[in-house]
Amino acid sequence: MDATRQRFLMCRPTYFAVDYAINPWMDPTAPVDADLAVRQWERLRQVYRDLGHTVEEIAPVAGLPDMVFAANGGTVIDGKAMAVQFRDPQRADEAPAYRAWFEAAGFELYDPKHVNEGEGDILLAGGHLLAGTGFRTAHASHAQLQEVFGYPVITLQLVDPRFYHLDTALTVLDEQTVAYLPEAFSPGSQAVLRRLFPDAVHATMADAEVLGLNAVSDGRHVVLPEQATDLAGKLRDRGYQTIGVDLSELRKAGGGPKCCTLRLRQGKASR
Ligand code: ARG
Predict the structure, then answer these.
(1) Residues enclosing ligand 1, CB less than 6 A?
(2) What is the pTM of this model?
(3) 198: how many CB neighbours lie within 10 A of its CB?
């Protein structure tokens, strides 16, 4: 299996906190170790660097505790960047910060017409844009994504509030392969996934409950929460090399490695 060099955008969790609850993982009364969150995030960044990937950073903004979840900052494919529109007012101000970063970095910018939480819900796999809906990204945004990027969109209906973003229920391992938690999807969407990805890895609830599916693959190495031991074993059986990371503090906000990582797909050549 060949690894593809990646270019990622990340945001240091300088102002990370759990001050509000917009998903079932978040409990504002539970303690969060902000320094540990930073150290865990730095370790994730180091793992990417050690794998030869490029990590770009956007400056964190005070008062935006969830800005560390860069996957929600946009969708970037073939040099085009679609900005985001958050469902919840607590995250609204992150959108212009990420938008400005894409503009400065020279991406062709598009603005969302509906709620769209970026790569949290939109994943490119097998020539399709897999697009989640049900909790955050509006179904109406899927048509705009297809129009902007020119990849057929496959709408996937999420049904379990703990797996509120597509990237908490499904991970793309390489062009042909995904891993997912079937129960996180409606019966019709499960049938679509079986049809598109007959060889997919099926994760267990135990793996999903530690956000094991919130993983980042370069086609060969898969970076995932170290607590997702069953999933890691299944991936190794398939020939992937797994790298466990501990993001226990960020998980208190409902995020894992993938949430912290936005893939920047520059041009066709480097996809
Ligand atoms: N607290 C954040 C939220 O609920 C977590 C976002 C996680 N990001 C992701 N790509 N799943 O919006």
Answers:
(1) 22-23, 26, 66, 69, 71-72, 91, 120, 165, 167-168, 253-255, 259
(2) 0.96
(3) 7
